[in-house]
Every structure is written in structure tokens, then in C-alpha cells.
TrEMBL record:
It is found in: Nucleus, Nucleolus. Belongs to the FRG1 family. Residues 7-22 have a biased composition (Basic residues). This is Actin-bundling protein. Its main location: nucleus. Residues 1-58 are annotated as: Disordered. The lineage of its organism: Eukaryota, Fungi, Dikarya, Basidiomycota, Agaricomycotina. InterPro entries: Actin-crosslinking, FRG1. It comes from Mycena chlorophos (Agaric fungus). Residues 23-39 have a biased composition (Basic and acidic residues).
Length: 276
């Protein structure tokens, strides 16, 4: 015989609709629609980034110019940066994907840095750079300040790229009708806005890193002084020494939010070197 179910004691009013709670898998706080779209993609699919941290790996950068969208490519034979038109297509602008390996660039970043480096996907891997006059090239083997770009994801999903001189990358038409890439714009307008596609594999990777970082930040600081001393302060042969002082001070420090500082002070008092 089954035990009777316990009824909720919450006060309800006549006509009030009952709301069912929905559990999200794996603690994913993103909207259901976004999570469903992610499940429909494979690792090699080209998708739009939602924030600057997702800009990594193979990347397709193109501009919605008229009459045909154009993209920056790298000619491995001449070693020159070239702006070329995309093939004619009935597809919407957001459905465009690269048709040649020369249209794919590789974005890398130093961990924790807001800036990225844009490297050619073909040839010897040259970095896209801009000088103080706004001239752009892709002939550098090493990265420095002139090879750093700060991506800005705009509200409509397009992306602008700012160089170290706080100027924006743009498409410019010069004499004779030729189109070149420059980086001397002070504001973001039509010429400075690009559509960017990344592979879904790297977008998913960025989400996982952000989730792990959030979990790590919310983890409580441990009061295990033995393990802490073994990690940060051990003598010869791995010998660990723990303070004999009362741990009440540590419990008090934890309530006050200064536990890490208190444990560091206790370890400092154990130092045997009087000159450090």
C-alpha cells in the first residue's frame, strides 16, 4: 500500500494557475531555445559568436558590402592581404560560409586577455597587423602590440575590431575602385561592421570554460590547513608543518570573508628563514 502524498501547505487563491518547475539539465542557465539550437549543431558547423570570449579557432570574417559581400583573404603565393568578393548566392547573408581555405583565419588569445591575434589559415601563418597610420598587412611572423585586436560584439550580432591605437578595422574604397583593408576609423559605422562565423566546437569550448570558471569561483574556501600547507609550503622530503595555534581564529575569519588572508598569516609564521 502506497503512502499518502503530502499536500503543499502553500496558500492558494481561487483562479490562481499552478506553475510547474522546470529543471535544466546540468545546471545550464541558458534559455531553452538557445540550448535546443546548440544541440542541432555539429562541431564543424559555422555559427555566430555571442560574446568576445567565443572568438577563437578557425574564423570566417566577411563584410555585407554591395552588390556582393566581400571577405579578407590571404594570397600565400604573393604574401599579400586581398579583399575579394564572395560567390553569388541566393542564400541570406547570415547563412554564408567560407568556400575556400584562404578565407579562413585563425583567432588566438592569451588566456585572460581581452585581445586576440588574427593569423592566416594558409601559408606560414602570418599575423594581421596595423600600424599607426592605419595600414594593414599580413606579413608578420611574430605577434606584438600591432598584431593585437580587441573584438567588440555589437547588439545586432556584428563585430568590430579595434587595434592598439584605438582605431577600428574597416573596408575602404580607394582610387580606381579597388577595395582595401584599413584601421584608422574613430567610430563604428557601416564600413567597420563585419559578420563573423566561428566553428561550433570552439563556441561550445568557450561555454564550458566559462561554466568551470563560475563553479570554481563559487566553491567555498577549505579549512583543510594540512592540505593547504602541503601544497604551498613544504620542507625537505615533503615534510609538512602545521601551526599549533587555535583554529577558532580561522573559523572567525571564514565568517568575516578573510579566510585566505588568515591562513596565509599562519603559514608566514612557520617560516624558518629569518631573512624572508
Amino acid at each position: 500500500m502506497e503512502a499518502p502524498k503530502v499536500k503543499s501547505s502553500r496558500l492558494k487563491f481561487k483562479g490562481e494557475k499552478h506553475k510547474r518547475k522546470r529543471e535544466r539539465d546540468g545546471g545550464d542557465e541558458r534559455p531553452r531555445k538557445m540550448r535546443k539550437e546548440d544541440s542541432d549543431h555539429t562541431d564543424e558547423d559555422w555559427v555566430q559568436p555571442e560574446n568576445p570570449l567565443e572568438l577563437r579557432g578557425p574564423t570566417f570574417i566577411y563584410h555585407p558590402s554591395d552588390p556582393l559581400p566581400c571577405t579578407m583573404t590571404y594570397n600565400a603565393t604573393t604574401g599579400k592581404l586581398v579583399i575579394s568578393n564572395l560567390d553569388e548566392s541566393d542564400e541570406p547573408i547570415l547563412a554564408r560560409t567560407p568556400s575556400d581555405v584562404s578565407q579562413v583565419w585563425v583567432l588566438t588569445r592569451v588566456a585572460g586577455s581581452p585581445t586576440i591575434n588574427i593569423r592566416t589559415g594558409t601559408g606560414e601563418g602570418k599575423f594581421l597587423s596595423s600600424d599607426a597610420h592605419g595600414l594593414c598587412s599580413a606579413d608578420r611572423d611574430a605577434r606584438g602590440p600591432q598584431e593585437e585586436w580587441t573584438p567588440v560584439v555589437l547588439p545586432d550580432g556584428m563585430v568590430a575590431f579595434q587595434n592598439v591605437y584605438e582605431k577600428y578595422l574597416s573596408i575602404d574604397e580607394v582610387a580606381g575602385g579597388a577595395v582595401v583593408l584599413r584601421a584608422d576609423s574613430d567610430e563604428v559605422g557601416f564600413r567597420e561592421r563585419f559578420w563573423v562565423k566561428i566553428q561550433f566546437k570552439y563556441k561550445k569550448e568557450a561555454h564550458e570554460e566559462e561554466k568551470q570558471k563560475t563553479l570554481k569561483d563559487t566553491e567555498p574556501v577549505s579549512l583543510d590547513e594540512v592540505a593547504s600547507n602541503k601544497t604551498f609550503q613544504a620542507w625537505g622530503m615533503g615534510r609538512s608543518v602545521v601551526s599549533a595555534a587555535d583554529k577558532k581564529e580561522l573559523k572567525r575569519a571564514k565568517k568575516e570573508g578573510r579566510l585566505a588572508e588568515a591562513m596565509l598569516d599562519r603559514r608566514a609564521k612557520l617560516k624558518s628563514d629569518r631573512f624572508c
